[in-house]
Design a protein that fits this description.
OB fold (Dihydrolipoamide Acetyltransferase, E2P); seven-stranded mixed beta sheet; 290 residues; five-stranded mixed beta barrel; 2 helices; elongated; mainly beta
Length: 290
């Protein structure tokens, strides 16, 4: 994910690193009698991969956490309670901050990403929202359903989807450069790749209720960046600019064959770069030296 836009967040900062889940391993503080350190390492590395298949996000209240049998009950509003298994592979977040497996406790507001492990329901990740009045989150739109209002965001490469819900009462706006912010915000801007900052409140159904959406960039939008060259990688086709006026850095991609003269630009050279956000990166269209 590009670092071209600096995202500042309010009372809560939700960081997680669209869809790769890493196995979480418990540390070994002691080795059982009769076992060597090599045995312990082998045991840990033998943790199986996550179950395959599609995943489903369920919302509800967590009850009856059993750390011995590695399971808990999820009370889903209007539906039958569900027993869900978890283990070292499950990632757990409290208000967006990753917490240890042993810190999983009963909670009123939780969103659980599940998949089937044989006939059992297994938790890939668990997101718990505290009783705070509201939260802030900034990231990239992964998916949005106009029919249901369900919105999934991610923040950073390899992120776990953060589930939210958009209603007709949700306020929307644009922020940033004048050419972008003056365009007016539309709910249809919630397309994959859009960069947004949202405010939400817990709704007790596993998805935070979005009260406000601020669009920071949408696919196809035009931007103009200026700053001094900090790094220039002709092979990767990336440059890093630092604007001395606000100490803000921008990472911009480019096609070397499309823009001439970049190879002899020294570090420290001040540039003005016209770029387009394509949903994954800011791609330079024109580069001018100051």
């Amino acid at each position: 994910m590009t670092n071209a836009v600096a995202i500042s967040v309010g009372c809560l900062i939700f960081l997680w690193a669209p869809q790769v889940i890493h196995a979480q391993q418990r540390s070994v503080s002691a080795i059982e009698p009769g076992r060597t350190a090599g045995d312990a390492t082998t045991s840990i590395s033998a943790i199986p991969p996550l179950p395959g298949g599609e995943s489903t996000i369920l919302g509800g209240a967590i009850r009856d956490v059993d750390p011995v049998l590695d399971r808990f009950t999820l009370n889903i509003v209007g539906e039958k309670s569900m027993r869900i298994l978890f283990d070292e592979r499950t990632q757990i977040f409290l208000d967006g901050k990753k917490i240890p497996l042993h810190d999983l406790h009963a909670a009123e507001h939780a969103s659980v990403q599940t998949t089937l492990d044989g006939s059992a329901v297994f938790a890939i990740s668990i997101h718990v929202l505290s009783q705070l009045n509201q939260g802030d989150y900034s990231g990239e739109v992964l998916s949005y359903s106009p029919q249901s209002g369900d919105l999934d965001l991610v923040s950073g490469a390899g992120g776990v989807p953060f589930p939210l819900h958009v209603s007709p009462r949700t306020r929307i706006s644009r922020s940033g450069q004048g050419s972008f912010s003056s365009g007016g915000a539309r709910i249809s801007d919630l397309q994959r790749g859009s960069l947004v900052s949202v405010q939400f409140v817990p709704n007790g159904k596993g998805r935070g209720e979005v009260t406000e959406i601020t669009f920071l960039a949408t696919p196809g939008a035009q931007f103009v960046f200026s700053g001094n060259v900090v790094a220039l990688d002709m092979h990767a086709g990336t440059m890093l600019l630092l604007d001395p006026r606000n100490n803000q850095s921008y990472q911009i991609s480019f096609k070397p064959e499309s823009i001439r003269g970049l190879g002899d630009i020294p570090n420290g050279q001040r540039l003005r770069v016209s770029a387009q956000y394509d949903g994954t990166r800011y791609l330079a269209r024109e580069v001018t030296r100051y």
